[in-house]
Amino acid sequence: MYLNVKSSKELFPDTLQYKVKRDGGLGLILTELAGGREDGVGITIIEEIVKGGNSENVGILPGDSIVAVSVSQGGNVVGETDGGAMETNEQRVSASTECLAYDSTIDVLTSLPPPSSPDEVLDIRVKRIRRKPKVAVKLQYPPEENLPDTTIELFSGENLRRAMLTRGIKLNDALSRRFDSGGTGDCGADGTCATCVIGVAKGEELLSPMKQQEEQILANKPRCRMACKAVVGYGMAEGEMTLQVNPKRW
Hints:
This protein is mainly β. The chain has helices spanning 102-110, 160-166, 212-217, and strands spanning 11-21, 28-34, 43-49, 65-73, 77-80, 86-88, 91-96, 121-131, 134-140, 150-155, 197-202, 224-226, 239-244. It has three helices and 13 strands, in the order βββββββαβββαβαββ.
């Protein structure tokens, strides 16, 4: 029984992690969305962040569901390694709270060892239902085609080549010579032909970083990317981009 979405078109479950000071309590009010089973399975979410509590302003939001907690305790020096580093007896205690009803969630949280110091923090991992971020992509076509600029909207996390083709953009340049063989025609997203290369006039930071193969192929084209190897809105970022389609024909 996981916190999830019925349709992944506009929403997605994100996983985030925060640190909350333990001394004085977490300052969270929980409520049960689903449960009532004898095995303790259910969905419990955060209903309210207590004003002035330890969880205020750390980033946790009402509606988040705690899926795991962990804490490090100890830390006394017990020896020295051969390299001169100090060894400690620090212990890491972790527990899962995902798919648990209210009572079971409380049982897990209260089963953690008490704080070993006033400054001890609890690592809390939560799931959050978020709207999928989007990127507005302005497309510019080769001057010889005499086509007006158009703008399409892509969801962050989409593969750029696939997203453009499914929206009717004529991406792969049929006249472009392949990088690998010198022939024509695209390789079908294998990242070897370079016929789907696009020019990036604005928003390069919104694309996933290049990997070694793409860097080698485009070593002399710093403002270009292989659309088949680029993820738009990398890291679920939002923003605006300007791309030049079929830049070899500009």
